[in-house]
């Protein structure tokens, strides 16, 4: 039996969609706080169980009979996030789960510019030290977030962003979900592995700007100072979000997301969606 925590989120739902094409719904468990958010899966025969990252007892109960668990990282940050992940890992051990998959980030470390990667560093160490069989997906930045970064660049002809020449192996969230579903249904091949998950190519923001040009229009990438970007973010976002997005830009500049890998292509049996293909779909 395969269970997914955080199953009502974008990645959780997409992974369940792909799992339903590969295995019987009776062998799938969606663990959520609010069952109303996954009624479409309950209607298809998926077992929906209540489980809260902050409630260890509910987690143990929700994992009864589960062999393989996909732990999708919590939406909170910092010490609270690590504590929630620790609750899930402990519950998996208590419930007799054999194998835990975890969604992490590239280059997690205590010195990561991208602050969520610090949380992932701690969680990876907890999972590896738990005695459970593990598989860690270090998911790169989603192509799905690029429209927010691009903004009105096509209209203005300018793409301001403080990433220098840094590159990123951007990846579509649904491609990650499909890769997860393939790995979750072939667990023996992935025992105690840590995978960089992204495109086989890494792209700079100059590449992104070039890809935005079409029908005779051009877009210029402007490598602005990080302080200017952070000040602009502060006009629109709360401080925690400013820290994350500014840190993401700094991480790109430092090469923290420049980890092209063939792993996802191997899991999919094809190349994941490329930056050019994604930009064409936006156009």
From TrEMBL:
Protein name: SDR family oxidoreductase
Biological source species: Spirosoma agri
Domain NmrA-like: 2-279
């Amino acid at each position: 039996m395969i269970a997914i925590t955080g199953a009502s989120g974008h990645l959780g739902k997409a992974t369940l969609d792909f799992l339903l094409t590969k295995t019987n719904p009776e062998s799938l468990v969606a663990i959520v706080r609010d069952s109303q958010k996954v009624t479409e899966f309950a209607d298809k025969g998926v077992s929906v169980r209540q489980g809260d990252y902050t409630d260890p007892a509910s987690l143990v109960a929700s994992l009864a009979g589960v062999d393989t668990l996909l732990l999708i990282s919590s939406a909170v940050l910092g010490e609270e996030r690590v504590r929630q992940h620790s609750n899930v890992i402990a519950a998996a051990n208590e419930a007799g789960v054999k194998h835990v998959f975890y969604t992490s980030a590239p280059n997690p470390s205590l010195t990561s510019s991208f602050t969520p990667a610090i949380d992932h560093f701690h969680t990876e160490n907890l999972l590896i030290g738990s005695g459970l069989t593990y598989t860690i997906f270090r998911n790169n930045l989603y192509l799905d977030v690029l429209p927010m970064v691009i903004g009105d660049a096509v209209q203005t002809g300018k793409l301001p962003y403080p990433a220098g020449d840094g590159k990123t192996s951007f990846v579509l969230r649904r491609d990650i979900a499909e890769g997860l579903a393939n790995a979750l249904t072939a667990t023996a091949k992935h025992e105690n592995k840590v995978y960089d998950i992204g495109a086989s190519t890494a792209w700079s923001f100059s590449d992104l700007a070039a890809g935005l040009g079409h029908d005779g229009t051009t877009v210029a990438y402007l490598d602005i100072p990080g302080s200017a970007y952070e000040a602009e973010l502060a006009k629109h976002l709360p401080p925690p979000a400013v820290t994350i997005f500014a840190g993401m830009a700094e991480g790109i500049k430092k090469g923290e997301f420049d980890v092209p890998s063939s792993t996802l292509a191997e899991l999919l049996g094809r190349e994941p969606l490329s930056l050019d293909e994604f930009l064409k779909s936006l156009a």
